[in-house]
Amino acid sequence: MGEGMAKFICMEVQTIDDYDEYCHYVAGLVGYGLSRLFHATGTEDLAPDHLSNSMGLFLQKTNIIRDYLEDINEIPKCRMFWPREIWSKYVDKLEDLKYEENSEKAVQCLNDMVTNALIHAHDCLQYMSALKDNSNFRFCAIPQIMAIGTCAICYNNVKVFRGVVKMRRGLTARIIDETKSISDVYSAFYEFSSLLESKIDDNDPNAALTRKRVDAIKKTCKSSGLLKRRGYDLEKSKYRMPMLIMIVLLLAAIILGVLYGK
């Protein structure tokens, strides 16, 4: 792992193959190790390497997408993990994506990156569906659901180039609390994929490919026969804060009424 990561200290991530190789060293090898540990304990069958690798790549690519601004602004030297093969279709330099005048191209590039990450989702679902031990399952499933949710949040979202974009704490807590079975995973992947699909712009240069990959994820989830409604919402409800204020005011009125009534 260290040797592989060191290779990219002085080497730019040029191609998508380079990108996959870097993510393999950083996270795919972790997937290999985890699968071997599960097998060594006798709790799981040994997963195929390509599935273990995809588990790591999906998580790592999601982090790389989400952390663009933090990485590009790193001091004393920026960190550049987005492959030139993708970003060079939209801008001359990777750092140009963060400038407001390039917002349209930046979002198109972002969508291209998310579409690339989605290719690993099917393998991840296949890997998780084979897990037998509940502790192993939850350990793997929760981060993967967070990843597909983060992809849905980041997709077509210019805020990725302006600041921190991440899932709400309340939604994160729900995922941790409610992820107990493969049915929960299929349902979460289906809903987050549907939310991402609702954000696809027909004018986006990768719209057709994005839809194809989202459709593949949804088809896998639906064919399981295990879907159930989760009701995940990526955005804070605009009614939540006014409702909270109303409750506080009502409680204050009741307390004052009791005090003055005495």
Automatic annotation (TrEMBL):
SUPFAM superfamilies: Terpenoid synthases. One of its GO terms (cellular component) is membrane. Signal peptide: none annotated. Pathway: Terpene metabolism; lanosterol biosynthesis; lanosterol from farnesyl diphosphate: step 1/3. Keywords: Membrane, Transferase, Transmembrane, Transmembrane helix. GO terms for biological process: farnesyl diphosphate metabolic process; lipid biosynthetic process. GO terms for molecular function: D-glucose transmembrane transporter activity; squalene synthase [NAD(P)H] activity. It is an enzyme of class 2 (transferase). The chain crosses the membrane at residues 239-260. NCBIfam families: squal_synth (TIGR01559). Catalyzes the condensation of 2 farnesyl pyrophosphate (FPP) moieties to form squalene. Belongs to the phytoene/squalene synthase family. This is Squalene synthase.
